[in-house]
# Entry
Amino acid sequence: MTVPPKALLGPLAALVLALAAFLPSQAATAATMSDAHRTAPPVCTREGEMIADPDDPHWLYHCSNGVAYHKLCPAGLHFNPFLETCDWPEHANNPAATTGSGQPAG
# Structure
């Protein structure tokens, strides 16, 4: 016997709602990411804005709905604040790329 697709919608919707209860909200996710970081997240001034992390060139903040989400560039890349994208370290010109000793941060 084949079950019509409409008959599966009820149980499927119930499963999705049950699983969604275990997922953190956007606000909780943003707070958790920011709390673990050394510097307070920046204030978003425009939707979609990408802001360099002042402490680490591998990280950036992405603004969405007024919340700054902390994100990591792919391995080996630094955030380029001028192009607002992850880029090769030699092209990124990220101010956090040098430490106080003037040595590359990696």
Observations:
- Residues 28 and 64 are 14 Å apart (CA to CA).
- DSSP finds three helices and five strands in the chain.
